[in-house]
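pipeline stage [seq->struct] | target=DUF6400 family protein | organism=Streptomyces rubiginosohelvolus | residues=83
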Amino acid sequence: MNQDRTAELVPFTIDLTFEEARRRAEVVAALGPDWDPVAALRSENEAYALLYSGLDAEQQRTYDRLVAAGVLPDEDPGRAAAH
């Protein structure tokens, strides 16, 4: 029996834009009223600087090569790795 079962299917649609907005609103709500995005970014920048401070010469060369290759971000504001 080779019946056409497409007539039995129920159409399903979802508005991904709405769902993404809802998800983001839930994330912000979960962060709470005391969350300070400027302080969080400042702390992240401080941690990044600390992570790559005090490198010896070989480590610094490796770090510089990884930045030049786009594997690690440089020190510019809004930095992100190229890959």
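stage status: PASS
auto-comment: The two ends are 52 Å apart (CA to CA). The helical segments are 16-31, 37-51, 57-68.
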